[in-house]
Amino acid sequence: MKMKALQLTDHPEQRIQLLDVAKPEPANGQVLVRLQAAALNHRDQWIREGKYPNIRAFCTLGSDGCGIVETVGSQSDAHWISKTVIINPNQNWGDNPAVQGKDYRILGNPVDGTFAEYIVVPTDRLHEKPAYLTTEQAAALPLGGLTAYRATCKHGAVKKGDNVLVTGIGGGVAQLAMQFALAAGANVWVSSSDEEKLHKAIALGAKGGINYRSDDWDKQLMAQTSGLNLVIDSGGGTGFSRFVRLMQPAGKIVFYGATAGLPTTLDLHRIFFYQLTLQGSTMGNDAEFTEMLQFCEQHRISPIIDSVRPLDAIISAFDEIKVGKQFGKLVISMV
Ligand SMILES: NC(=O)c1ccc[n+]([C@@H]2O[C@H](COP(=O)([O-])OP(=O)(O)OC[C@H]3O[C@@H](n4cnc5c(N)ncnc54)[C@H](OP(=O)(O)O)[C@@H]3O)[C@@H](O)[C@H]2O)c1
To answer: Is the overall model pTM greater than 0.70, yes or no?
Structure first.
């Protein structure tokens, strides 16, 4: 039996192609999920551009998905059949909750991912779809939700009354980080390259926003906030150095990406004197995935969806995430 899957190829120009590939079969401890929806992350486009370590050609891309369990490899897992599930994209986080181990992998390269009609995953990666989410919203939650949860709620320990900056609010992770910080009762400011995105974030509850392309965005932000307790960033680049001056004593800068590259300077004197923390963050462990789902359910948080398109049109979604005009997740529907 064949199925459609979006795979990374070895073609020099058409790096991603929708191909007919063998439909996978579940082994013991695995299930076959008929996908109903999947969603893009910037990771998928980085992989298309070859800007990711250990990528494998002829691997199905996609880390996020929601679907219905169709068959199981072991009869002991039969209770999963016909359940609508979301998939934890982590594999082999390892024994240390603080950091992933050397065998850690993420669904969607090097492990076959969710941009397909079917996927086989280990049973312990399954969570029942929260009833308050549509399949499209549920599909858009896993990778971004996990990354935002660890960065904002665990490392960032966000709490009521904190002044928080979430950068690049057009981003899928950033939008969930904003929603998590708002749910915790924080005062949230956002940054963007796009004025309309700032307005949309303010309509969703942010106190204000600044354009990170303006020369004096840091001064504008200081005037609005009188200092930050927490920054959640994935931009990096030269703007990163300016966060240091915006922090209140004992503030934290948590970063999970470096889209704009590396900072050229860092005021180490200020960092140690004001007891600031610079904290890197990647994805999250399996317990945090469960906690993230509970936190979202408790606060009725759902990912913002920009658009939904069929699997046949998936390459256009990659082209869009590269340009970054969207506000919300780009979702693929398989039904
Ligand atoms: N470490 C991890 O586990 C992990 C997990 C997920 C993502 N990431 C990384 O985090 C980044 C965002 O991922 P995503 O999937 O959320 O991407 P996305 O949905 O494609 O969003 C990207 C957003 O980044 C913002 N951006 C671009 N340049 C920026 C800059 N110089 N300063 C601040 N923001 C900037 C833009 O926001 P505006 O449109 O508002 O300007 C853009 O919309 C990527 O680099 C990704 O690889 C890391």
So the answer is: yes
